Amino acid sequence: MSTFEQQLEKIKTQTGFIAALDQSGGSTPKTLQVYGVSDDSWSGEEEMFATIHKMRTRIIKSPAFSGRHILAAILFENTMDRDIDDKTTAEYLWEEKNIIPILKIDQGLADEVNGSQKMKPMPNLNALLEKAKSKGIFGTKMRSVIKTDAVEAIKEVVAQQFEIGKQIIATGLVPIIEPEVDINSSSKSNIEIILRTEILRELDALSVNQHVILKLTLPEEDNFYSELTQHPNIVRVVALSGGYPREEANERLSRNFGVIASFNRALTEGLTAPQEDQKFNALIQKSIQSIFEASKT
């Protein structure tokens, strides 16, 4: 079995969840503030990224952070380009932790049009995908956001996601397609109805050997995405926490059978830089265990 085949088998069949560690440039200062590192602790972008890498390294190296509970971890490009000990981050994840490395590839959100935000253009995508493959990355993640139930705008978001998804598949990587629904939208339920229809339309148009992972906001109706979890072109359906506190995210997730977590804020909730390792590791262990249990249903 090749490494890719081993990783594909793991993510398709094993119990666990995906850890999202992919905050990028714009969200990094806020992430560091929540972690207890103030803006005056670093100077300039390079120091900022070195500081966030130190945080991520601490999380990844925690004894609780292992392939026993975590199937994969999503990184952003700057993290992929850095090392943990004497290995690249992707190598360290797979070889030391048995965790599949995935890369966030989008360059952020375009301006809102009719209540939705597509992804900004990615003119250097092919070069990034080739670099990712050379570093041992298994798959990719890209995010759009939907805030209202304007049908044509939702169609455009989904079409863009799948168009780029096919480009990613062609390079031998597995794309995570993430059309996030804003949890605060007054039309969330109706958005989900339209979104499911459009995703199914795109999935049915894929060839038998084109496979994707879906990352979706936890739905208002339990098991609303069960048809997607059973679709032959789906590797896995995963849920984002979307701003829900961990307890609520876990509770919603546990009611959606066949869907696993891909949490970011809910995973790192409560972790701070000043904490002693014993407390830090105990907190992340508790967080990982609770998300793992919610992903088992």
Notes on the protein architecture:
By secondary structure, the protein is of the alpha/beta class. The protein has one domain: TIM Barrel (Alpha-Beta Barrel), CATH 3.20.20.70. The chain is built from 12 helices and 11 strands.
CATH homologous superfamily label: Aldolase class I
Q: Strand percentage, roughly?
A: 15-25%
- State the name of the first-level CATH class: Alpha Beta
Cα(first) to Cα(last) distance is 29 Å
The poorly predicted ranges are: none
- Give the helix level as a range of percent: 40-55%
CATH architecture identity: Alpha-Beta Barrel
Q: Which short descriptors sum up this protein?
A:
297 residues; alpha/beta; TIM Barrel; eight-stranded parallel barrel; two-stranded antiparallel sheet; 44% helix; globular
